[in-house]
Design a protein that fits this description.
alpha/beta, single chain, 339 residues, 12 helices, seven-stranded mixed beta sheet
């Protein structure tokens, strides 16, 4: 298996990208990596870590796509950037299976859609990040920012694609799918949500569990939440932000009184475990579901541990033949509707 790693564009690039990729390489013996970016910087990191593996290829692409670049301009004018070069390799090289990038979201989505293309039958690709639940499992949210305006049919496809992703990459059996809404009753929400509810209820390839209110997101009662990209992005960032601020509040309170500090000494291990549990870096990036080849978008602030999880996500998606399963489910659903 070959995975391309875009080594520029993130806050901690290229060190985090290269080091995270190396960690994944050591885990999977059948994995080869193509590291794309400034060759000198990449080789400096490899030398620093004393890595000389024959399973690593370095491709020189010194330009960087930033968040200030308009997507179309980035595609047309920054052909020597690490992101656009990586996309081109993913498109042109049949033996390249996946791409991992921590670069700008807009240009990546545009380049992937225009240059890689969609799986047959898929209306729009969608982001699907993973977060931990209070029950000890994980929950995906699809879409989390790729599509602000959606139709009921798109939400239906998000449910299908997200279900195949969780089954293949995370071994979740028959994922429970919830539709993000303002209430649990089936008549709740606007016209879009009510229409989507009816479609999801009749979709045989998913396990639809009904409407879900935002406060239930981390409960563990759902494995996948389906929504438009605007609502999904707000939900995802609100949850992440709440977790981070809660940790800060706990730390401030502990240091506010001597008796709290004394008690915290006995709970230090527990606090560290909770911190790791709520750290989004441990759960990888947002997978772009629906494109012809596997693409994982990591957080811009990803450290090497986060990049390692992103590359491992891509590996598991390819191994599970996720895209083939998505294609099959989408086409079966289309055939069912025609009947």
């Amino acid at each position: 298996m070959k995975i391309v790693v875009d080594c520029l564009g993130g806050d901690n690039s290229p060190e985090a990208n290269v080091e995270g990729a190396i960690l994944t390489l050591r885990k999977h013996e059948d994995l080869k990596l193509i590291l794309v970016g400034d060759e000198t910087s990449i080789r400096e990191v490899l030398e620093k870590r004393n890595v000389t593996s024959k399973r690593i290829e370095v491709v020189h692409a010194p330009d960087v796509v930033t968040g200030n670049d308009k997507p179309i301009d980035a595609i047309r004018l920054k052909k020597d950037s690490s992101m656009i070069r990586s996309i081109r390799m993913l498109r042109e090289m049949e033996d390249v299976d996946a791409l991992v990038s921590t670069g700008a979201t807009g240009p990546l989505v545009a380049a992937a859609t225009l240059r890689i293309g969609r799986i047959e039958g898929v209306r729009r690709p969608a982001f699907c990040p993973i977060l931990p639940t209070m029950a000890g499992g994980v929950v995906g949210i699809c879409d989390s920012g790729a599509n602000v305006d959606v139709s009921a049919e798109m939400l239906q496809q998000f449910a299908i694609m997200g279900s195949r992703y969780l089954e293949g990459a995370y071994r979740v059996k028959n994922p429970r799918v919830g539709l993000l809404n303002i209430g649990k009753e089936d008549e709740k929400g606007d016209d879009l949500r009510r229409e989507a509810y009816q479609l999801l209820s009749g979709t045989k390839s998913i396990n639809f569990a009904g409407n879900m209110e935002a406060r239930e997101f981390l409960s563990g009662d759902y494995d996948l939440v389906v929504c438009d990209g605007f609502s999904g992005n707000v939900l995802c960032k609100a949850v992440e932000g709440t977790a981070l601020e809660l940790l800060k509040k706990i730390k401030t309170d502990i240091y506010s009184k001597k008796k709290y500090k004394f008690g915290a000494l006995f709970m230090k291990k527990m606090f560290m475990e909770e911190k790791e549990f709520m750290n989004y870096q441990n759960y990888g990036g947002s997978v772009l579901l629906g494109t012809e080849k596997v693409i994982v978008k990591g957080h811009g602030s990803s450290d090497r541990a986060a990049v390692r999880v992103c590359v491992d996500q891509a590996y598991r998606m390819v191994k599970s033949k996720m895209n083939e399963n998505i294609r099959k489910s989408i086409m079966e659903d289309a055939a069912f509707r025609e009947e």
